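Problem: given the chain below (150 residues), write out its structure.
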Amino acid sequence: MPCDDCLSRREFLSRSTLAVAGAAAVAAGCGDGHFGPTALIPTNSRISLKTASLPGLSVVGQPVKIPQSVGLIAVKRTGTNTFAAVSTVCTHQGCEIDVTGATFECPCHNSRFDSDGHVTRQPQGTDGSSTNLPTYTTQYDAATDTLTIG
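Solution.
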């Protein structure tokens, strides 16, 4: 049975290995007991989704988290046919970030980021610092309403 969106066994195992390696790296660097999700889209991988599946993307400038099962990413519409994608994993200690209005906030140490992923408030109560959130390239096909990230 053909499947255009299916992963081969080899590709699945390759992605799984990358996820486990990433989790181990985050666990090793976690100094104060906080353990959060790891990254995001493995190198050379892409995520495709229909923008209609995320109604919040009808509003320009409003970040919307994509389903966690797909990736730890938020997307915002920047124009009629343009989008921007940013990681929702805090660069301080790897906690998953919440979308609050048009900004991002980390529940672990209250770091804040604007809708483009730039740090607007460093983590509180720590000696660590956050850097800007990683961003991803996006491609949108208006004919099929498909957004590809990565």
